[in-house]
Amino acid sequence: MSVPALHLAVELDGDGAHPAAWRRAHHSPGHLLTPRRVADVAAVAENAGFTLITLDDGALPPGSAPDPVGRIGAVERAAFVAASTSSIGIAPVVPVTYAEPFHVSSQLASLDHVSGGRAGWVVTEEDRPEAAWGWGRPVVDGAEARARESRDGVAVARALWDSWEDDAVIRSVATSRYLDRDRLHYIDFSGRTYSVKGPAIVPRPPQGQVVVLGHSGTVPAEALDVALVTGRDLTAVAAAAAAAGTPRVFAEVEVALDTPDATGAERVADLERHAPWADQGRLRHIGSAGQLVALLDELSAHVDGVRLRPLVLDEDLTVLSQLVIPALSQRRLIARPLPGTSLRAALGLTRPANRYAAVAVQEDAR
């Protein structure tokens, strides 16, 4: 399958990557958590030609006073966006450190049905002990234990998505049967902290498996469709991408672009008066649109895509839409996803076979 050299994703949580981004936003603070704001920003990203949007989330509210300290759940926002878009992929962040994987898998399968096969899932961890209190559960202590919960959560979700074969729903009026029970399967998962029998309560997603994104090292490479890699420079990103071992690799890139009103550096300095822009170990570009285009061109030799984290959405998305994406299109580095195309197809990923159906075929052949 022919795919472009680079796929563009953008993180749309809050007002931007900087904790004080709301101070430069083009709307009142009270507008941030409205459905209109969610739909408007998603529409800008889709019309610009991004392949994918991601929506950050967690059990605890983001930020601290005087900055905004609330958000709507990522899955709920994703479902709302799915109804108002037609081509862009939508990947909410859903940690499974404490959340029930059975419920998470059902939510994401439902999102894939609602969006017509455009759902993704960004797997992260809850590393603050207060998150456990919110769930009323014991603290999952230590990086190894959190990685285990993420690994088990992804394994359960993937098995549950396969627990319904594609033709399990028969809707037979003549026999008054809605399901073929022989095409529903128990997954019989048993882990260190929980077990899941299944099957799922939602039919298999249109994509077969929702596209799973995560950071290398947190989830095993074989469980990911897209690895999110970091590095403070091109060399570090290239090394991380080469070691990822996943079908697709996206680099994390923070951007503060020059605008007609101020340079990227001036905009960062303005916000730094209120709060620091913490170094998360990601590649960071502060400068012109042309310089970002050149950087992304270089990155395309090492990764399949980038997830951009704009300093201030209302300012940087405009520059990305008007200057960066058109320039990348002219270089034939990117291609706009088409309506009706699944996220898997847009990323050049095949639709996976159902593990239980494959076993049944093998047994019938014996």
Description:
This protein is α/β, with parallel strands linked by helices. 36% of the residues lie in helices and 16% in strands. It contains eleven helices and 13 strands. Strands 1, 2, 3, 4, 9, 10, 11, 12 and 13 form a nine-stranded parallel sheet that branches. The chain has a two-stranded antiparallel sheet with strand order 5-6. The longest helix is centred in the middle third of the chain and has 20 residues. It is globular.
Short account of what is shown:
With 366 residues, this protein is of the alpha/beta class. Helices cover 36% and strands 16% of the residues.
Roughly what fraction of the amino acids lie in strands? Answer: 15-25%
For the biggest sheet, the summary is: 9 strands, parallel
Query: Low-confidence segments, ≥5 residues, pLDDT <50?
Result: none
Q: List how many beta strands DSSP finds.
A: 13
Helix content: 25-40%
Order of helices and strands: EHEHEHEHHEEEEEEHEHEHEHHH
Q: What overall geometry do the principal axes of the alpha carbons give?
A: globular
List keywords for this structure.
366 residues, alpha/beta, nine-stranded parallel β-sheet, two-stranded antiparallel ribbon, 11 helices
What is this structure's SSE topology?
Elements: E1 7-11, H1 35-48, E2 52-55, H2 74-84, E3 89-92, H3 101-115, E4 120-123, H4 129-135, H5 143-162, E5 169-172, E6 177-179, E7 189-190, E8 195-196, E9 211-215, E10 226-229, H6 234-244, E11 248-257, H7 264-272, E12 283-287, H8 289-299, E13 305-310, H9 313-330, H10 343-346, H11 355-365
Parallel strand pairs: 1-2, 1-13, 2-3, 4-9, 9-10, 10-11, 11-12, 11-13
Antiparallel strand pairs: 5-6, 7-8
